[in-house]
Amino acid sequence: MAIRSVEAIPLTHTLQDGRSFGGTRGMTDSRSTTLVRIETDDGTVGWGEAFASPRAVAALVEDVFADAVVGLSPSAAESLAERVYTGDIGGYHVGRQAFTQCALTGVETAMWDVRGKQVGEPVHTLLSGQTTDSVVPYASTMYITEWDQDPAEPMEEAKSEGFTAAKIKIGRNLEDDYRRVSVAREILGDDAHLMVDYNGNYTPRQAIKSIQALSEFDLTWVEEPVPPENVSGYREIKRHVDVPLAAGEAHFGRFDFKELIDERLVDIIQPNLGQCGGFSEARFLAKLAATENVLVRPHVWNSGVGTAAALQFAASLPDYPHAPDMAPEPLLFEFDRSENPLRQDILETPFDIDDGILSVPQKPGLGISVDEDRLEEYRI
Ligand SMILES: [Mg+2]
């Protein structure tokens, strides 16, 4: 079986009423991404997501990757990242760069989707040999909004939907950080996992002050307290606080992550399965992380396709160093609660969250079916 075609499908959705929301380092009034659709000569279709500016990354997929991949077996996914790093695909000058990694991810995950369909197994089982039924979803919510939203509102909503864990946006100033975390903790309750995300908006000194001021709230992790490129900042924060640090949504490929892992600058890495280089690369990162006892919890702000890829990847993670079924750390999985029809509406069967548990699709490949008619409504 060989790949016959590669198509990039840029998508966008403008938010209702044009109201922007986001984090400290950027608001958006739309949700956009690019899907990659590959088809093999026996008619099997595979899907992946390249999570970057849609038209630009779509052009990269079609100009650079399509010719390189057409004619290959889907099992060539295993070596695709190496071919990008060495410059065999795309030229070595740009192999490590963000857009190249995003395009690679979309193509590579689509190849894994086809592979899973060929052998009749979900990707997580193909990757790891294990079967995982479910993960614990956490609500990604309490965004910073351009309108004056009461922060209690989205948290009450997440709680009423059954979420038992949540991550919120902070990082505007210390007083606001304290107020927002107080509200979230009060609503969620003392036992719930609560995480905060600064989106890299602080200097190391500000971050240390803020994290110390929040110590009473028993945070499960603190995400991107300083910008992704501020390696010395992570080092400095590590020396001063005793809360797990997380980063990875703005890191691309193995060399970025290796630096975080080798020095244990973070306790949790968060590769995004629309950006990090694909399933093989994500597995590589997970194994690298395990050597330093760094946890892996994917970043997910994607469409239904990227969410499914992240879910399959999360389900493939080992509990190391814990014995099977004796893991004290729940497999927390990011589930965005903001407006994005690309997350659920483009799937024939939306994700199943029930009683604070998210089922891992067990059908072959990514385990989802994309509704191609619905896609047309969002195509750019
Ligand atoms: Mg984040």
From TrEMBL:
Record-annotated Mandelate racemase/muconate lactonizing enzyme C-terminal domain positions: 151-244
InterPro entries, sorted: DgoD-like, Enolase-like_C_sf, Enolase-like_N, Enolase_C-like, Mandel_Rmase/mucon_lact_enz_CS, Mandelate_racemase_C, Mandelate_racemase_N_dom
MF GO annotations: lyase activity
BP-aspect Gene Ontology terms: amino acid catabolic process
Pfam families: MR_MLE_C, MR_MLE_N
Keywords attached to this entry: Lyase
Top-level lineage group: Archaea
Protein name per Swiss-Prot or TrEMBL: Mandelate racemase/muconate lactonizing enzyme family protein
